[in-house]
Amino acid sequence: MLFSFSALQALLLAFFAVRTASIAIGRNPNDWIAPYKRGEVLQDIVTWDDKSIFINGERVLLFSGEIHPFRLPVPSLWPDILQKIKALGYNCVSVYIDWALHEGKPGDFSAEGVFAWEPFFDAAKEAGIYVLARPGPYINAEVSGGGFPGWLQRVPGVLRDNDTAYMEATNNYVQKISEIVAKAQITNGGPVILLQPENEYQSFIDGFPFPNFNYWDQVKDQYRKAGIVVPFISNEAYPAGYITPTTEADIDIYGHDGYPLGFDCANPTVWPDGKLPSDWWNTHLRLAPSTPFSLVEFQGGAFDPWGGNGFDKCLSLLNQEFERVFYKNNYGYGVTIFNIYMTWGGTNWGNLGHPGGYTSYDYGAVVDEMRLVNREKYSEAKLEATFLHSSPAYLVADRINGSTSWTTSPDIIVFPATTETTKFYFTRHTKYNSLDSTSYKLHVSTASYGNITIPQLNNSLSLNGRDAKVHVSDYSVGDFNIVYSSAEVYTWKKYNEKTVLVVYGGPNEQHELAIEDTSEGYGSAETIEGSGVAIAQKTGYTVLNWATSSERKVVKTPSGLYVYLLDRNEAYNYWVPATPASYGQGSLIVKAGYLIRSAVTDGTTLSLIGDLNVTTPIEIIGGAPQGLTDLQFNGESLDFKQDDAGVVTATAEFKKPTISIPDLGAVEWKYIDSLPEIKADYSDETWPDADLEKTYNDKYEQLTPTSLFAGDYSFHSGSLVFRGHFKANGQESSLTINTQGGSAYGHSIWLGDKFVGSWEGNDVTTNYTSTNTLPNLSSGQDYVLTVVIDHMGYDENYVVGEDEMKTPRGILDYTLSGHDKSDVTWKITGNLGGEDYVDRARGPLNEGALFVERQGYHLPAPPADDWETSEGPTTGISAAGVGFFSTSFDLDMPDGYDIPLSFVFTNETESAYRVQLFVNGWQFGKYVHNVGPQRSFPVPEGILDYHGTNWVGLSLWALEADGAKVEKVELVPQAVIQTGFGKVENAPLTKWEKREGAY
Ligand code: GAL
């Protein structure tokens, strides 16, 4: 049914009739089959109480990482990220879904190819990872429009409100995407256990009737009616208390977000006073005492704007120390739904980002943009997540307020979490950002031995600078009770023949651990490896006291408990690999190196899958079958030894591959001008007329006789070109023009073939008025202005009522001296076809307005025979304009390795130019030389064909009169990882075909 909802809709229909067979913005929700009645219990697999969720009746800690599959258009690499997250000890991922990529044109929903979700859900299940689905429709996420497709600029009424036009605009997407998500719900055997409707719905303009629960109800109903049965969770940006189970929002589980150190990465060593959340526990009790304490987004890094500081600095700010202090603070408050934003950030390829960010969305996350796991914060996160999953008491312990009375030092504060037996002491500096080394003794309170001040044997404990600890008492390790431990627990496992406990401390710290042991022969615990462990017997328990050092120490009790006392840096090398397709933890404890992905035991065969960056000793300290006959690493049998305690040792050899990467300075390039518009014989006859008398944009005033807002003409990405025709009268001394493209955008203007001027752009300016002197024109002659404007994406729509997403792109105003504005008639183009985008494989946003993009010359195998042969982008172009350099080369990368490659630009001179990097047709870089900061553009395998011919295209837009050249661009390997991951399938690398009607 074609559903027309307003006169404006009808207008739109007529307007787009030429290019568009039918436009149906959404459907009436009442048309849907509604299996759902409010208040019904929809499923009983995912339930919750005040402490945690349950899955199939079992309490579960959700330790979750945020990832956005759409930021990597190579579905065959999604399992790689999921496995790396599972290896961290996480059991969940949270994913946003970006509406703008699925419904580029109203009514035209598409989730095929790289945009399909089924492969992702399958991969999550296979990796043993639950999914929290966050389909919006509004998501923020530093994506263009915050996930709103560009055509929402034309929707009358307030966005993110129950305005009929807005609700109807969302219907089609919500229904279609929900059908996909619904199939992947746990009730249908899939991994999806929770859904978050909307996003951070708590900011609104002054005077706005808010919160609008009517809207909220409708959003929930849309999902329920489309078959979503899993619980809903909210994510307020801060604990505002609007979207809770007890307000009219009636959310199932209340959650909020937290980015305590913010996003200014300029001073990565500065932790300002007062940034550590200090009242979250009491706030939780006030707002949602009946649901688990949920941090639906907690800071895992930071975004970085154009001209920003670069992700290295964000990584330093939000590093392993940040994880220790801030995450452990959250554990102190009892978080049991904990999602870390971002855990892998990815790439804003193909114009999907908002104007507040550049191509990289690395985020300084634990897994880097290239999917490498060599950041220390990855290892720290693994220690923490693995500990919590090894500690079931964590989920049920009561939280009490923090106090400095738990230690002998007022400079140390402890947040205890207590059960009748097990207690956790979340310990940090009272002044959270202190850099001091503080000595203290801790008062633990034990069930059988009363209060004990530890260490008992020796010295004190110490907290060195930005650190936090989780001490424990009455911590059960299988059949053993650890009376207390100041050393932090990594994990433990009980096997038939022995129990293994792994603990660690920071470098050169004193620690003490006591094991309750009243069995026969107790008291004769012995150090079986390393030295320096003082062992003393107290009534009922054995005390171990030691200083951590790089030398590993292992103590064995007569009853079969093996305690590994590690230095934290050593602990980083330990893994608890799971078997594929199991949501739980694995049972093996393996010391290895770079990455262990999974482990499968089959009889007396043990098979590890992992990655190496060097030759690595492997040691399985627990869980290998007795009498192991075959130890495989990535399918190859290794020589190994197994000792009496079952410990297996072997070496996995790193074999250095030979790789050959083309020298982009030496390959042959082809060149074609990409601004034919400025040539005298160029005809724009077939271009869309910019003749809409009144904009559809209800938020921004139109100052020109016809709308020159690109969104009115269905152009939403990359760049825009306008052509302004007029007849001269000889009085045209100047052109004043106000353009808008978002942060870091630029514009360039030509009159006929004469360059008139550019706005070169900077990090903050989103629109600019330039006054340009024009040459003398001949009265009575026809002239044409060509205006090229960069489109940096749409603004997000954070504050309800502001409708910031509707901020137009294009020409806002102009004055041509000696003329009425209406003397100029305009044509406009963005990507060829606008919302009827041509390249269905690469989606609605990948292309912009440049001639080469309209023709599809950025795609593999363009018709370049007639193009000039060139030495490449380093030759540059000699005048303001746009040129396109294209080359191709073969890659034959070795199998069994992950060798991420980046295109690296040199930037030593000042010159205003903009480059788009196309790799096999996929836009994987927008480089603004005079703004920065990004110079290195990773392009994943699968976009680069590692076993075939690759086509690289660089569009070079020179904004200065004397042109520009790329100083240098190189293809550089970023790491050589021997991987057990397996083959990567290419994304669709569809080739150039002649585009009918391309102008
Ligand atoms: C949150 C928002 C996310 C993302 C994040 C910053 O407020 O929910 O979508 O924008 O901030 O990276």
TrEMBL record:
It catalyses: Hydrolysis of terminal non-reducing beta-D-galactose residues in beta-D-galactosides. PROSITE patterns: GLYCOSYL_HYDROL_F35 (PS01182). Residues 393-574 form the Beta-galactosidase domain. This is Beta-galactosidase. SMART domains: BetaGal_dom2. Coiled coil: none annotated. Its main location: secreted. It is an enzyme of class 3 (hydrolase). Its EC number is 3.2.1.23. The lineage of its organism: Eukaryota, Fungi, Dikarya, Ascomycota, Pezizomycotina. It comes from Pseudovirgaria hyperparasitica. SUPFAM superfamilies: (Trans)glycosidases, Beta-galactosidase LacA, domain 3, Galactose-binding domain-like, Glycosyl hydrolase domain. Keywords: Carbohydrate metabolism, Disulfide bond, Glycoprotein, Glycosidase, Hydrolase, Polysaccharide degradation, Secreted, Signal.
